[in-house]
Amino acid sequence: MPGDYAIETIDLWRVYKDREREVIALRDVNIKVKKGELFGVLGPNGAGKTTLIRILTTLLLPTRGEAYVYGYNVNGEEHKIRPIINLVSGGEFGGYGLLRVEENLWMFSQFYGIPTKEAKRRIRELAEKINFEDKLRAFVRDLSLGERQKMNIIRGFLSDPLVIFLDEPTLGLDVPTARIIRNFIKSWLRENPDRTVLLTTHYMLEAEELCDRIAIIDRGKIVAVGTVDDLRRLAGNYISATIEFYGTKPPEGIPGIKGANLREISPGHFRGKIVGMDESDIIEYVEAIIKAGGKLRFFRLQKPSLEDVFISLVGRGIEE
Amino acid sequence: MKKEVFWRVVVARAYPRVMSIVRAARWTIGGTIVSLFYMAALVLIYKSINAPPEYYSFAILGSSLLSYWDNVVWNMGMQLYWDKEDGLLELYMIAPMNRMALLTGMALGGMTMTSVRAIMIFIVGVLLFKAPVVVQNPFHLTFAFFLALVALYGVGMAFASLFLMWGRQVWAVADILMEPVYTISGSYFPVKSLGHSLAFVASIIPLTFGLDAVRQAMFGSAWGLLPLPYEELFLAVYGVFYILLARYALRKMEYLAKVEGKLTLRWQ
Question: Cβ contact (<8 Å) for B96 and A93?
């Protein structure tokens, strides 16, 4: 029943239409996110992650199906959803350049009706948690990409939302800044165990590190949902190999090979992963490379990781 | 939405514009200088043809009030478009605020910001050209000026959503129409000189009655197109009409955004 979950979608479709074409961004999406959960949506660019977030944040209506946030329908009860949610997207500018960071954050706090004194207290508190106090007096226009994203994180959490949507929040950030943001998200949930986070990402490690459960989405369709361990079990009988070779890519459709994620790092030089049903399938794949005149440079068999699960379910790598 | 929260949003959204008076002072000064050059050319033309000295004042007053029109078209009309490009529009749309509060804040901030430029143009123009300044009816001057600003910024609030719906091409159209609007609104001369038919067509834009009403309140009814109370009535009606249009356009824009997936998305 809607309301038992922080987020619920039922047979959700979203189709974009213009004069020339029709694009199905989401097809038959069914997810249930429990209150207090950090739920990840993992998929390549263009898989439908942002469309899902836009529907759940009341920016977009579904073409078919239903979506609920805390039991409120995104179609008709937006006014009940908006006070309890917030959104942070990766790469957003997030403010007016001529304002100081604290002024910009104060401006957004007013849109949520937070009294000025309380808003200033929250801004300081959140800034301390992500080592950003020294930038509160800086002008927005002078911030680096990472600093700007820290400001956006404060903006998103400032309204103390029951559900926060994080759309690729660490996109393009340097490693230390991404780590600070990930740590902050974890500590916020520890301090507020009743709050819910829906995070979209195409970074495997981020999903693995942060999420209680993950939905894998590809071409608008959810192909698997579960904890990292559940997903690993899905690929439990499979085996994966890291491979590097000179030559040509073997043709697709080798029986037993569930997927391959090979990148041509220089002309005729490939590196990546292959996932097969068992060792013999992998060996058959390698033989096909050698028969075609290829030369093996590196080869290692291993247990499946989340990336391998993704390749086995989707048939290709997340970056492709 | 509670009144208190409404006004919080208004003040917050007006804040960046008010701060720009100081922090983007060179834009204000630059805009003032450009207007002064334009105004000086007109005053010198009037002088060369021995026009009555009141005409110098008309050119100065017109230049001063046109600042508001420029602000309405470019800063109000284009603001939501820029906000969309910067990814701010979607943050505004998910916030639990009254959208009209957002537009009101933009308008009040714009008025404050532009008043600095308008006052500078007026003072420098009067001092530079020793133009006569009389105020025959201070009450009507204040009242007509207030109504003109409400009507003008009502247009700006409506433009904000309409420009967003029509996209970039409307920018070019607005640019092309700027000069004709300056002319037919009677910015630099009494609008009745155009003849009543053209003057009434021009009065679709509140700027026309706004300028004419302020001119009448300062220099007397001899220069006016209609009796001053009628012009004030028209301005009041325009104010209500454009604010209602702004409300409608905003809802339409939000509807299009949600149904068609347009407008709030940066890439569409």
Answer: no
> Is residue B263 in some structural domain?
no
Residues of B in contact with A80 (CB under 8 A): none
At B131 the three-state DSSP class reads coil
Classify domain A237-303 at the CATH class level.
alpha beta
Assign residue A183 a region: left if phi > 0, alpha if psi is -120 to 50, beta otherwise? alpha
| Number of structural domains found in chain B | 1
Distance from C-alpha of A169 to C-alpha of A87, rounded to nearest angstrom: 10
pTM above 0.80, yes or no: yes
Closest to A170 measured CA to CA, from A40, A18, A30: A40
Q: Which amino acid is at A258?
A: K
B50 located within any domain: yes
Pairing of strands A196-201, A163-167: parallel
pLDDT value of position B268: 43
Give CA–CA dist A247/A236, Å, rounded.
30
Residue type, A299: F
- Structure-model confidence comparison of residues A209 and A253, the more confident one: A209
Confidence category of residue A250, pLDDT binned at 50, 70, 90: confident
Q: Is B203 on the interface with A (CB under 8 A)?
A: no
Q: What is the CATH number of domain A7-229?
A: 3.40.50.300
Residue A284 has pLDDT above 50, yes or no: yes
DSSP per-residue letters across B52-106: -THHHHHHHHHHHHHHHHHIIIIIITTHHHHHHHTT-HHHHHHSSS-HHHHHHHH
| Residue keyed to tokens 């001119």 | B215
Residue of B2, B19, B257 lying closest to A99 (CB–CB): B19
Phi, psi for residue A15 in degrees, rounded to 5:
-120, 130
As a residue count, chain B comes to 268
Q: How far apart are CA A89 and CA A166, in angstroms?
A: 6
Strand partners, A85: A163
The pLDDT tens digits for A7-55 are 999 999 999 887 778 889 999 999 999 999 999 999 888 889 999 999 9
pLDDT at B183 over 90: no
pLDDT at A260: 84
Asked if residue B11 is part of any domain, the answer here is yes
Q: Is the CB of B6 inside 8 Å of chain A's CB atoms? A: no
